[in-house]
Amino acid sequence: MLARLAAFAVLLLALPSVAADYLGPTACRSCHLEAYETWSKGPHARAYSSLTPDERGNAACLACHAPDRARGGSSGVTCETCHGAGQYYAPVYVMRDSELARATGLQVPDAKSCARCHDQNSPSLAPFDAGTKMHAIDHWSAEKKARADAAGKSASHRRQRSSRAAAPREAKHTTSQARAGSSASPVRHPAAALARGQVASAGPQALSGGAAAR
Ligand code: HEC
Ligand code: HEC
Ligand code: HEC
Ligand code: HEC
């Protein structure tokens, strides 16, 4: 009870969002190793490194490729882009209390939240298929399984540490091929949309509060 009140006080102090709210993905890794490993090999981890140095200075691109950066968060589409800035929910006693975690900023988004960035401005020709795409970034099934296994073995605080090397920041991706393939128009989407003045309105809003309130 005291912990809840203390956390609530912290919550009040925490608003509005400031730079210090973001911990960065390695902070989550210490407890969510499986989720981290999957994410770090996936498309979102390289969303910033996919951009050329010029593009990294373009706020219109960062709106989807590094949305937390302007507020002091990490580059790319990270844990905290989708789950909310972690400073107040990451302490383990908060994390274990689902309700409290949500009250202190944790969001567990659903497939609808993807539209924030996967909209008509993204390069994909096919419409966003939530089922397939959710499967492609699944970092929760292994996590849930690991958690269930750990719960079976011990109820004590699971703090996982990996001796494996940190995730490669410059993960191999198709961007260079894509660029090489058509130098006249390296990216079909926002660059073109930008010229038509459409990108500004396409920037993501905070993952709609609906997810947080679940
Ligand atoms: C100190 C360890 C620790 C850290 C650091 C941590 N978590 Fe957690 N997290 C947990 C525990 C423990 C649970 C609850 C597991 C359970 O219910 O059995 C949890 C649960 C979650 C859940 C599921 C919550 C729910 O109620 O459905 C999400 C999502 C999550 N964490 C994301 C994150 C993110 C993102 C970060 C980094 C900003 C992070 N966590 C940092 C330990 C941690
Ligand atoms: C509205 C959100 C949004 C904005 C704004 C945006 N992007 Fe993207 N971008 C995406 C999404 C989503 C993908 C990946 C999904 C896909 O292929 O449709 C992507 C993919 C890319 C890729 C990888 C393409 C590949 O084949 O590997 C590059 C490069 C890229 N964007 C560059 C840019 C540049 C440059 C800008 C700014 C002019 C920009 N993006 C602005 C959402 C956005
Ligand atoms: C592109 C958005 C996105 C990013 C980036 C992301 N997640 Fe998630 N995460 C989700 C979604 C969506 C779910 C819910 C899946 C479901 O259960 O339907 C989820 C589920 C989870 C869960 C399981 C929650 C539960 O119900 O048990 C954990 C833990 C988690 N994420 C941690 C992380 C960590 C740690 C990172 C960074 C290493 C991360 N996520 C990055 C979107 C994201
Ligand atoms: C904050 C913006 C943002 C959000 C929210 C987001 N994505 Fe992405 N996503 C991107 C960007 C940017 C890329 C391109 C990364 C690159 O290659 O540079 C991408 C790439 C992908 C890709 C690989 C390309 C493709 O289209 O197959 C998948 C799969 C994907 N995202 C799934 C999801 C799912 C599922 C969700 C919702 C749970 C989601 N994303 C939410 C920005 C976002």
Word description of this protein:
This protein is mainly alpha-helical and 214 residues long. The chain has a domain at 18-84 and 109-151 and 168-205. The protein contains twelve helices and no strands. The chain has helices at residues 2-14, 25-29, 33-41, 59-65, 79-83, 92-95, 98-103, 130-136, 141-153, 175-181, 190-195, 209-212. The chain is globular. The two termini are 22 Å apart. Residues 7-14, 158-188 and 190-214 have low confidence and may be disordered. Bound molecules: heme C (4 copies). Residues 25, 28, 32, 35-36, 39, 44, 77-79, 81-83, 108-110, 137, 139-140, 143-144 line the site of one heme C.
Helix/strand order: HHHHHHHHHHHH
As an assembly, this protein is single chain
Number of helices: 12
Gyration radius, in Å:
18 Å
Q: What structural category arises from helix and sheet content?
A: mainly alpha
Strand content: under 5%
Associated small molecules: heme C
Task: Give the tally of β-strands.
Answer: 0
In short:
The chain is mainly α and 214 residues long.
Fold topology:
Layout: H1 2-14, H2 25-29, H3 33-41, H4 59-65, H5 79-83, H6 92-95, H7 98-103, H8 130-136, H9 141-153, H10 175-181, H11 190-195, H12 209-212
The protein binds heme C (4 copies).
One heme C binds at residues 25, 28, 32, 35-36, 39, 44, 77-79, 81-83, 108-110, 137, 139-140, 143-144.
